[in-house]
Each structure stands twice: as structure tokens, then as C-alpha cells.
Amino acid sequence: MMQKVYLSNYELDEAIKMYFEKLGEFNPQTEKIRTWDANGRVTASAVFAAISSPHYNSSAMDGIAAKSERTASASDRNHVILTEGEDYVVVDTGDPIPREFDCVIMIEDLIKAGENKFEIYQSAVPWQNIRPLGEDIVENQLIVPSRHKIRPVDIGALIAGGINEVEVFKRPRVGIIPTGTEIVEPGTELKVGDIIDFNSRTFSAQVSDWGSIPTRYPIVKDDYGKIKAAVQKAIEENDIVLINAGSSAGREDFTSYVIGELGNLIIHGVAIKPGKPVMMGVINNKPIIGIPGYPVSAYFVMEEIARKLVLAYQGLEAEEPAKVKAFITRRCMSSLKYLEFVRVKLGYVAGRYIATPLTRGAGATMSLVNADGVLEIDQSIEGIEAGTEVEIKLLTPEEKIKNTLISIGSHDPIIDIAADLIHGRNRKFFLSSANVGSTGGLMALKTGETHMAPTHLLDMESGEYNLSYLKKYLPGKSICLVKCVNRIQGFMVKKGNPKNITKFEDLTREDVKFVNRQRGSGTRLLLDYNLNKLKIETGKINGYYREEFTHLAVAAAVESGDADAGLGVYSAAAMMGLDFIPVCNEEYDLAIPEEYMETEIVKEFIETIKSQEFKNKLDELGGYDYTNTGRTIYQRS
Amino acid sequence: MMQKVYLSNYELDEAIKMYFEKLGEFNPQTEKIRTWDANGRVTASAVFAAISSPHYNSSAMDGIAAKSERTASASDRNHVILTEGEDYVVVDTGDPIPREFDCVIMIEDLIKAGENKFEIYQSAVPWQNIRPLGEDIVENQLIVPSRHKIRPVDIGALIAGGINEVEVFKRPRVGIIPTGTEIVEPGTELKVGDIIDFNSRTFSAQVSDWGSIPTRYPIVKDDYGKIKAAVQKAIEENDIVLINAGSSAGREDFTSYVIGELGNLIIHGVAIKPGKPVMMGVINNKPIIGIPGYPVSAYFVMEEIARKLVLAYQGLEAEEPAKVKAFITRRCMSSLKYLEFVRVKLGYVAGRYIATPLTRGAGATMSLVNADGVLEIDQSIEGIEAGTEVEIKLLTPEEKIKNTLISIGSHDPIIDIAADLIHGRNRKFFLSSANVGSTGGLMALKTGETHMAPTHLLDMESGEYNLSYLKKYLPGKSICLVKCVNRIQGFMVKKGNPKNITKFEDLTREDVKFVNRQRGSGTRLLLDYNLNKLKIETGKINGYYREEFTHLAVAAAVESGDADAGLGVYSAAAMMGLDFIPVCNEEYDLAIPEEYMETEIVKEFIETIKSQEFKNKLDELGGYDYTNTGRTIYQRS
After folding, report:
1. SS (H, E, C) A86-126
2. What is the pLDDT of residue A538?
3. Nearest to B365 among A156, A190, A196 (CB)
4. What's the CA gap between A220 and A287, in Å, rounded?
5. Which residues between 21 and 60 in chain A have a beta carbon less than 8 angstroms from any beta carbon of chain B?
């Protein structure tokens, strides 16, 4: 029953061309709908006006319709008197011009000369102030061409041209089948191993954005017979079927075998990353696409392949996205085996676009949320060096990127809060943050990738915060240090502190599992400073090498029972319902180059963190001291 | 009862600010909806993850979950044997990692060593190939901020983060009331003086594009009581009301008085053109906008004012549209009384954008269909000289403009046909034409505003077509002349030729009304050539000074009975059901600078007019000879 199918490695364009050629027989279907229901629909044929607009000669002014020859002798010195009915009729704007008259004289140029009479003091030329029949639209004139996406203004012109029904391409029905034994509906009580189905919901929203009508089917377990039945049903009920295949080899096979049995699997595997295991098949002349399970792989297969198909069914081609030139901040290696799509965060700093590659994991849904653009690394290229200027396909409008304050550096949940508040205060501004630790932030300032760097770096010798690091990492740069908050760092432990962890020495106990922050972060430095002072060997701490990138991630590891303790801020512990054993106070400040201090966006940001609203949020979170928040505490020129 | 309202002349920004301040109390309402129904909706508050994703430590590979300490001594020379259950369990990608294991070794690095045993030859480090809990999303992490328009990828991340319901701004309900005694529904048998209502349909499509729910009410006659009743009902049933006031003074008053009586008319008149007579009022704390009747005025009031309001109800601000720099082809005068919006057609010719102002009449719905952008002339500026570089707000994507072939010159209905066909052949290409007559086209070639100029200019001395004009108007330019068609020109007369018009002499008859083409057009030249040859005085022709810009417009004037005869091509007469008396054959050719002949778009155009499909269309229209169509008949270097 099962035919063996080999994974191919076609280039993307070649694969799409092959597939579309196989699908060649599919004819986009059309339907006639009322013009006023046609917004966003695509014309199947050119539309020509059925009537002229205006459909009669009409007055362009309030005044009188007159005979121009009767006015020929009128001048300042020789007023001419016109008589109603005989020489003129009164007309308002839009009124029809009776056949016997050939011009309109506007009310401002008339002198009342008794009942039913006007005096005029200048001659009128034929057709003056008349909107002739067809001035706007002439019968038989082209209004919109075929394959044109109808806009509101087109609806107006079509109706004005007497077109009350238009022939448009049908919106294809797209069936979406989620599969996988481990896949559960959102809202299900989660067991370990369960994966919530969200891909099918993203697909539904995508295809509906592309103009088609999605139907999402129930989740199908990994069972050949059930998958086959689901595919048969979806093929019957739709024009296009998308099946969200699992990501492991075994599960993919089910899908590919089902497509092969019911129809024809044309392509299995395309040289793109992520997205390689895509399947493209045909059943009963209808396309079926097997979308990989990982969300990021799924995204690129949807955008690069499914989208073109859904649009083609409506007579449309995908428009080229807008692009910008940007400098890439990190080296990007890539395989010669694939065309690679790298999600990037874009910043507009000091007059140039800066692109920072986001995590390349195929499971990272947040990287899709955070991406502002996509860098395509061609199959023929092995990698791109940091600092290279590259072309980025935009996902976020340029205008928004240019109004986004970039914050790269140490993580604290209050940066998210500030991001939300600044946009609430002034809708044009946004804040985008990346958590790379305090030293990473200072390096990003040095290379001009960020507007500001949140930092809490403890000088091991002086015990002073931040200043010595600015001098060390950014010599010769004019940097201001703006007070953000003083905050409490401490041990985050399970509710009730079951392992009774109260001091650094406890971390070396056999029964204690620790979870650490990444190198370069201020919190890691704080740990190392204390371990060093207490002469505790790092190797003695179980979990010292397990690194997380945010306070929240550390708290989550403790909350889940994976670890017994981590070092972090009070607010993160409180959010996760953990107990907190204070270790010290520290200064969490913002390093901002002097040149940005007077920009509108930085000033708005400083106003934001000075605001009562922000302080209220800090009080809600707890563990923050905002006495000097927003004050410039150091300025070096 | 009626309070007198004066027309004000506030600046646009000032008026909007004033109005929004008065509306200050309106609170955008919110609602909770299911996340998977939230595409395109706007978050009312920041959304933080409810659960981590993955919500357990999971395998990133197919392989075995093992204890890293058991692998420490493994090397190429010292294989270590692991036993199932004790040292490892088999895991697939996505499977949970049991608490006692801390790393995953992938299947490629395992050597089968009998039942339930694997040999390994390298050590594993803790957390290798494990996707830790929260790797993608950590509980309490910000997923999307407030006032964020939810995209398909956001839906995925929200569901992954355990958010199955989101609080979003309600889509405002917008009531739309068309008014006017002369206004009739589309499809009504038209009487002279009737105006089809299409504005309300355009408004509905616009507000729905902006995310709100339109309700269009029946047309209300110009009757104070009826307008008042309609407004009361609409205010009750909606969040925002748009009333399409008539354009004449009397009718506006009804609307303004009704608003004044039921609530508060805050602004009546804004210093914009078109759009000046806009009204902004409040009734029961709900905004009501009186939109002027002329479609173009209505369009700018909708875009510049109503749009901001509809978006504000959803917590959004209007995004700045994309802009390009372009050279303006014609002088644009403007009043110091207004901020003026000028619709322009954009072309991309020889590496620069060229903006040609479209007709400025407020009734020109086709100018909205044809516009690619808008030039704003500031109130402080009296005009802009031809050739000035200006900033244009884009209505058409840049990509489309760059792929549009510009044709400026003589009109023939077949240019519309070719426009439709070239886009059908290759979806990326478009053709845009402007009818300015043959000589206008040659001037546009000279100034670099067009890629080609259709032309049919008869040399009065030699009787030869086009060539002498190329030499005269474009000396020193390398121009190719491509044969388009030979076509028949003649008199267009009413069916049955009731006035028996057969020769130029007949045009001077007292009982004959003529309709002419504009100066500079080839057809006008043809007329003048013949009149001159026959020594007929133009002053003797009744209607010689009535000018239309296209063959179709001339045909429409004859068809309506406004004129008895016009000169034009056979196809236009046939389309309008007119009789046609041939006068001569003429050569309708395309002048194309040599530099464009090898561009992809010009080559595609020439293939289009050579195609059988095009010839079939010409046969349908009749009156065209396409023997040499597409052949270069003259090339001068």
C-alpha cells in the first residue's frame, strides 16, 4: 500500500515552478457579486462603464443656465438683461441643463433686475460652468482592469459607471488539518508531553489575510487511517488543503504516504531552512501542502509557498515586500545546502538600520513575534560577516522602526512595562529590548547598535556600580548614566523555602540544584563576586553551568522544580509565586550616549519612567526603589 | 429652532485637535474575545504569558535522554556502554525529559550494543539537546504590548503562552446616512437630474478597511424632519455617524442645523481643498461627521478626518503613508486659503519618479481610481512650478509603479485593451495611459515623462504620418517608431444618420451641432487639415470650440443627442451604437526612445500587441488593420 517517497532537495523557485506546472489545469473560479460587496475582491475581467457619469449635462455652479449667443454683447458698459424662461432658467449645482441652453452663469455674476430678470455685464462662452455628460466617466470606458484588487474608490467609480455587479475570482476555501498524537486543543489541562495546537490557528489567520476562507478541522491523531479519512474529507470540502504534519520522521511518512495513495506527491523536501520537509501534492486536481510542525518552519512554508498558491487562486501574485539595507550585527553562518531565512530585529540607530539576528531555532514562536524583517542567505553563500550591509525584507513598517527606541543590555521585567507605557503615552513611539546582559549592552553601545543599555555591573574592587565599566568599555565616548531603579537581588526558592537556602554556601550542598544566568550578565557577575569573596569553587555548585537569559526564565526553572534556587530580582520571584531571600541592593541604570539624550524619543522615555504610572507599576511588582528614577547621575563629555 | 452656524476655516490639524479634545470623554470600549478570533484586532492591554512554552523540558532531537555524569569518561578510545531504564530512555523530538536525566544524545552518535544497550564515544554536557522549559516563552513574559494590532504570528505565540482569550478594543459601529432628494439607489431607472448614490458604498468599504462595522442607512430626502429622525436613529444604533451631506448650500444647512439641534456642531469648515465644507459634531457624546457630497471632497474628508476617528476608537493611530520624491510635470497653482490635496499619477521613467497632476475637479471619481499618490500643497504656498521635486504620499505600492509602462499621447480604446492584456500575460507588469493628444505625447517624451507616445500626426504638406513630427519635436533624440495599427477615422453620427452628414462641408450647416477634440490631438489636426484644404472657416462650425479629450467622449456626446457629429475612430462609434462615415485611413504608431526598446517591459508590451489575443480584440472592435503591428518601422540613432 505504501509507496516509498524520497526526500528531495529542490531549490525553492524550481519547486514552486514544478508544482504550479503540475497544477496547471486548475482554473481559478469566478462568481458575480454585488459591486458594494466587492471590496478587496479581485476582478476576473476588465470592467467597462455601462453608463456615463454624469449621465446628462449638468450645472457646475449655482446660477442660471443661459444661451451664450444672447450674452455676446454684454460688457461693463453694456449690460444685457435676460428674462426667465425665455433667456434662462435658474439652476443649482448638479441640476440638468435644458437642451436649449448652452452655458451657466454663476450667481455671483448676476444683478437682479426685477421679477424674473437678471442683468449681466460680461459675455458667456459655450459650455462654461457645465459638467458635460461623461465628464467623469464615459460609457464603455475602462474603469478597472482584470486581476485588479477592488478598493473603496473603485466601488464608487464602478457604481457611478452603472456597474452594480462584478465578476470576481472566488475566494478559495482552504482546509487546515492539525495532526499529532501529542497535540491538544488550547485550554486542555496540560500533561507533560502535550503540545498545544496553535499552528492551525496561525494558518487560519494567514490564509484569511490572503483573501481565502479557512476551515480548521479537529486534531487528528497519528493514525494512518484517520489521517487518510481527514484528508479525503478536507479535499472534498475545500479548494486547497493544508496538513500540519508532525516534525519527526515517522509522522511525516504518514502524511506523505496518504498523499501518495490518494493522489500524487510531487515534491517532498525543498532546499530552504527552516522549512525543508515541506510536501506538495495533488489530490483530485486540488493542491495539498504538508506543512512542517515546527512553528518557524511552518511560517516560512506558509509565506513562501502556501501564500503564492492561495493568491494564484484569486488571480493575484504575491507583491514584493518592501526592503531596506541594514548592517548585520553578528556573523551569520549558513549551509550551502539551503536558502536560509534568518529573522532579524531591526533598529534605526544614528541614521542607519541595524539588523540583529534572532534565535534561529525552529520552535521559537517569539522570534516571529519579535522579528522586524527577514534576511535571506542565498544557497551559494556560506555566511555573512558581522558589519556587512545586507538587504532585509521588512515585516514591520519603516516608520515604526524609525520611531522605536532600542534597548540592549541587562534584563529586568520593568523594561517591558516601560515599553508598554511609552507607547500608551505617545502612540508613535515604541520600545524594543534585547536581553544580552549588562556587558553585552555596553558592547552594543560601542558598536552603535542601540540607543541605550540597561546595566548593573558591580566593580569587584570598588564595590561601586556601573561607572568603572563605562570607562573601561566605552573610552572616549560621551555617555550619560541615567538612574533607573535600585532593586533587590536575592535567592529565588520554592514557596516555603523547603531546602532552607539562605546563603551562598548553601548552593554547594549535594541536595541543591542551582540555575545560573549567562556570562556577561550583571547577575552572574554578582554571583561570581560573592563566590569569589567567600572562596567558593564554582565547580562545587550543581547547575552552575545551566544558563538562562532572563530573571523570569530562572524563576520558571525554580517554579517547575527543575532547580532549587537561582539568583534574581524580587519582582520575578513574586510573579512566579516563589519565596525570595534578599542578598543585596544593586543599581540598575541606563547608559545613554549624550547625542541621543536630546532626541524626542529618549526624552519621552525618561518622562515615562519618571511618571506616576510607572512608579505605580513598580509598587505593584515590588522590590524597586525609584527615588532618583530618570535623573542623570553621571555625564562624561 | 435653527441656530445660525457660520462656516469656519480652521487649519486641518487644529480642527482635528479641537474636535478630539471635545470628544475627550469618549472611552474606547473593550471586549474579551477568543485568541483565534482576534486577527487584526487591537489589544487593549499588554498580554503576558500564562504558561511557559515548552511547559516541560523536552528533547530537541531524536535519541536518548541520559545522565551527563555517566558519559564523562567516554571518548574515541574509551566507549561507554549505557543500559536502557538505568542510564537512559529513548526519546523523540519533543518528548519530555524525565527528571533523573539531564542531557540528550542524538541518534547519530549512538552505536547499538545489543538489546537495550548503546555504546557512546564522546561525553555529553548537561542540558545538551534539551529545550528547557520556557525556552520559547516564559510564564509572565510580555507577548504583545497594549495597542498592538494582532497578527497571525501573535495568535500562535499567545496560544502557545496559554492565552486563549484577549482583551481587545471593540470595533466601532459606524452608521452611514446618504442624503439628497436627487440621490437614487444604484439600479434605479435614471431620469435626468438623478444622481446615483455611490459615496455611501465607498464609505462603507473604507470604514470596514479601517476595522469598524459599517451600517448603511437608506437614502434620506432633503427634509429637515426626516434627516433629524435618521440622525437620531443612527446615533442610537452606532458609535460614530457619518452623514453624506449634499454639496449645495441649502442642503448643508439642514445637516448642520440638525447636528446643532440634537447636539453640538463643533466645526463647520476646514481649510482644505477639496473637503472644505466638512462638519464635525457631537450628539450624545458620539461623534457625527458631515461629509461633503462631491466624491473627491468626500474621499479626503474620510481619509484625513474620519479615518483618524475610527482608528482612535480602536486605540490606533493612522500610520504615516510611504512617500517618494517625484518631479512634477505641470505647474500647480494653489490658494493661500487652503491646504490642497492634488491627486497625481506617478510614473517611473529613466530612474526617477514623475508626478502628473490629475484633474482637480471635486466630482472626478476616476481621478481617485487613477491616482497613485497625493501631493499636499501647504497653505503657505501659492503654487509649485513644473519640474520641481516634491514629496508624494503613495497610494500605489512603489513596486507596482516601477513595473508600470507609461503611455502618454493620443487616445485609442485599444490602449486600454493592451493594458489589460499585458497584465494578464505577466502579472508583474502594468500599463498606465494618459490621453493628452499626439503632440502632447511627443512633448512628454521630450521631457522624459513617458516611456512611449502613441501618435497619429498627419504632415499637412507631405501627407505622411508621424515621422516629420518626430524630427521636429524631438531633434537629436534616438526614437523608434513602432507600428501599432492603421485605423479608420470618420464622422460619428446618430444611428441611421438622420441629418445625412457625409462630408466636411455638412458640418457648417445651421442644423448641425459638432463636437470637437482638443487642440494638439491628431484627430483635431486631421479635421483642421481637411477644413484648410476645403477652405472651410472654423467659425462657421457650430460646436467647433466644444472640446472632448477622447474618442469615446465625442461618441457619447453624439449618442446623447448633444451633438450631431464628431470625428473619431470606428471602434468608438461601434461601442456607442453610432453610424460611421469613413473619412480616411491613418497611421496610429508608437514613438519609443531607443533606450527603452530593450527593457523587459517594452519587450513584453510589443509581444502583447503582436499576440493573437490582441488581434482578436481588434477584430471584435472593428476598423483596425494590424498587418505590421509590433514592427519597428523607423529607427533613428
Report:
1. CCEEEECCCCECCCCCCEEEEHHHCEECCCCEEEECCCCCC
2. 93
3. A156
4. 20
5. 35-36, 39-40, 46, 51-58
What does pLDDT average to over chain B?
Answer: 91
For residue A157, list chain B residues with Cβ-Cβ distance below 8 A.
198, 365-366, 368-369
DSSP secondary structure, B537-551, as one string: -GGGSTTTT-EESSH
Set of chain B residues whose Cβ sits within 8 Å of the Cβ of A164: 186-187
In this structure, are residues B45 and B145 in contact, taking their beta carbons and an 8 Å threshold? no
Whole-angstrom Cα Rg for chain A? 35
At B82 the three-state DSSP class reads strand
Strand B389-394 relative to strand B323-328: parallel, antiparallel, unpaired? Answer: antiparallel
Helix (H, G, I), strand (E, B) or coil at B204: helix
Tally of helices (H runs) and strands (E runs) in chain A: 18, 38
Q: In this structure, which amino acid lies at residue B579?
A: D
* DSSP assigned state of A597: H
A247 three-state secondary structure: coil
> In terms of residues, how long is chain B?
637
Contact predicate B356/B329, CB 8 Å: yes
Q: What is the C-alpha to C-alpha distance for residues B208 and A152, in angstroms, rounded to an integer?
A: 10
Q: Are B179 and B247 in contact (CB under 8 A)?
A: no
Taking the CA of residue A517 and the nearest CA in chain B, the distance in Å comes to 14
Query: What is the structure's pLDDT at B319?
Result: 81
SS3 B261: helix
Phi, psi for residue B159 in degrees, rounded to 5: -65, -40
Backbone angles phi and psi of A334, in degrees to 5: -150, 155
Residue ranges in chain A whose pLDDT is less than 50: 1-5
Give dist(CA B262, CA B259) in Å, integer. 5
Residues of A in contact with B179 (CB under 8 A): none
pLDDT of residue A549: 87
Q: B54: cis peptide before it, omega within 30°?
A: yes
B577 interface with A at CB cutoff 8 Å: no
Kindly provide the residue ranges of all beta strands, DSSP E only, lying in A369-520, ordered along the sequence: 373-377, 383-384, 389-394, 404-409, 430-435, 453-455, 479-493, 514-517
DSSP B60: S
| pLDDT for residue B636 | 67
Q: Which chain B residues touch A322 with a CB distance below 8 Å?
A: 322, 398
Q: Would you call A548 an interface residue with chain B, using a CB distance cutoff of 8 Å?
A: yes
The answer to whether B428 faces chain A, any CB pair under 8 Å, is yes
pLDDT along chain B (637 residues), means of 10: 58 94 82 97 94 90 90 91 93 87 91 92 89 89 92 97 97 96 93 92 97 97 94 97 73 82 94 92 95 92 96 86 92 89 93 88 83 94 92 93 94 91 90 89 93 92 89 91 95 96 95 93 91 93 90 92 94 94 94 95 97 95 94 82
Which of A182, A190, A419 shows the shortest C-beta gap to B55? Answer: A190
Q: What pTM was computed for the model?
A: 0.88
Q: What is the pLDDT of residue B4?
A: 42
Q: Is this complex scored with an ipTM above 0.85? A: yes
CB B386 within 8 A of CB B328: yes
Confidence at residue A427, expressed as pLDDT on a 0 to 100 scale: 84
User: A7 at the B interface (CB within 8 A)?
Assistant: no
**Unique residue bearing C-alpha cell 511552518:** A298
Angle between helices B600-610 and B612-621 (to 10 degrees): 50
Which residues of B fall within a CB distance of 8 Å from A399?
A: 319-320
Q: Which of B112, B121, B124 is nearest to B77 (CA)?
A: B121
> How far, CA to CA in Å, does A431 sit from each of A405, A451, A486, A606, B505?
5, 10, 21, 12, 77
Alpha carbon of A270 to those of A248, A336, A562: distances in Å? 16, 13, 38
Give residue A4's pLDDT.
42
State the cell numbers at B605: 508590451
